[in-house]
Structure formats: structure tokens, C-alpha cells
Fold this sequence. Notes:
The chain is an alpha+beta fold. The chain has 8 helices and 5 strands, in the order ββαβαββαααααα. The longest helix has 35 residues, at 96-130.
Amino acid sequence: MADSSKATGSVQRGTLHGVSLSPFVRKVRVALAYKSIEYELINVMPGGMDPDFLAKSPMSKIPVWEEDGWTLPDSSVICAYLERTNPEPPLYPSDPREFATALFWEEYADTRLLDAAGPVFFQRVVHERFFKQPADEEIVRRHLDEVLPPVFDQLEDLFAPIADPSQINIATLSVWVQFVNLEHAGFELDAKSWPRLASFLEAMAGHEILRKLVEEERASMPAS
Ligand SMILES: N[C@@H](CCC(=O)N[C@@H](CS)C(=O)NCC(=O)O)C(=O)O
């Protein structure tokens, strides 16, 4: 299934393989929209990968970016590539220390935050809504009550004070895409416990590009 996601004022540059509900595909879709790069989205589900796709994605993961038969896997790598080919508007800070710090928070979001949030999304959305199977409530409870709070604490104390949600950059974007999956799973962050993180997320939700993408995703999901 193909979906043409057109940004204004540019010629189609490539094809993105993956599904939008993947936070990593979402990260690349925002980068593409932010840089006004036109692309076609080809739906590829994680897990059901044929040998042709494995040749494009040796670690068997989505997303994969493709241009004229040349392919590039991994959201971080794809965003870094797009920054080189389309430097404006920039997704990465120019100051070396701010640049490195942003890369660290991208890595944190892609690993620690994903590991904590992913199972909640998997149970509540993939299992319940797509597979029509009951969620494993013990997994959901453990992640919500025990695994996620220390991660939120770190984001509250270390990330939120330095993050500027008026800017879409690789750090703010990478953290935000993981929270969208929690939101799709029906989770709302407790603003009393994590006030700076909650206002960061509220401010991010105000970006037109991000709002539109989330609306599109919601419309594509089966009812609960
Ligand atoms: N580091 C990779 C992670 C990509 C990733 O884990 N994608 C998941 C979907 S959210 C996937 O394809 N999983 C399939 C698998 O691991 O077999 C990136 O940034 O693109």
C-alpha cells in the first residue's frame, strides 16, 4: 500500500518504507515534512519481512529510506543524511556541545525511553486494537508503575530543563515520537509529578507538522 505524502514546493525525492505507528518511522516523517521533502510511504510492517526487504534493512527493521534504488536503514542515519542533503531548516544544533547533547538525547529516546514505553504501546495498541487480543495487564502495570517513572524522572530533571520545545530538532523530536506511542496507548503524563516534561510535551503538540501527523495516525488506527 502506498501513500504519497507531499510537502509543498519540492519534487519527490524518495520512498520511505515502514509504518507510521513506529516511532522511528514517525521521526523520519517529521524530518521529511520539516525539510519539505516529498516522499512516498510504502507500508512495511515490522516482523513480516521478505528477503528483498532484508537486503535493504540488514537488521530487519523499519524505517528504510530509498532513492533511485539506493537504500539507507535506521532513523538516526536517515535523519543525519537528510541534514546533509537538505541543511535548511536545520534539525541539529550548530554549536558542537549542543549538537553532541542533542545526539545523546536522541540515543536516550531511541533506547531507554523506547524500552520503557514500547511494551505499553505493544499491549494496548498492537495486541488490543490490531490483533483484537487482550492486553497482558501485568506487563502494562509494571511498565506504567515501575519502569516508566524513573525514566520520566530523568527526562524531567535532565532533559526538560535544557530542551526548547519551540524548536523541532533531533532531540526534541526523538523524545516526542516515543510519547506519541504512549498517547496512542491511552496514557497521559501526570503533570503534577513531572511538570516540566508535561509542559515540554504540551508545547511540542502545538507544532502544526506534529499535530497533523498524529491526527493522520489516529485516523488510521482501528477503534478500541
Ligand atoms: N535504531 C533503529 C530502530 C528501528 C526499530 O527498532 N524499528 C522497529 C519498529 S518500531 C522494527 O522494525 N522492529 C522489527 C524487528 O526488530 O524485527 C532506528 O532508529 O531506525
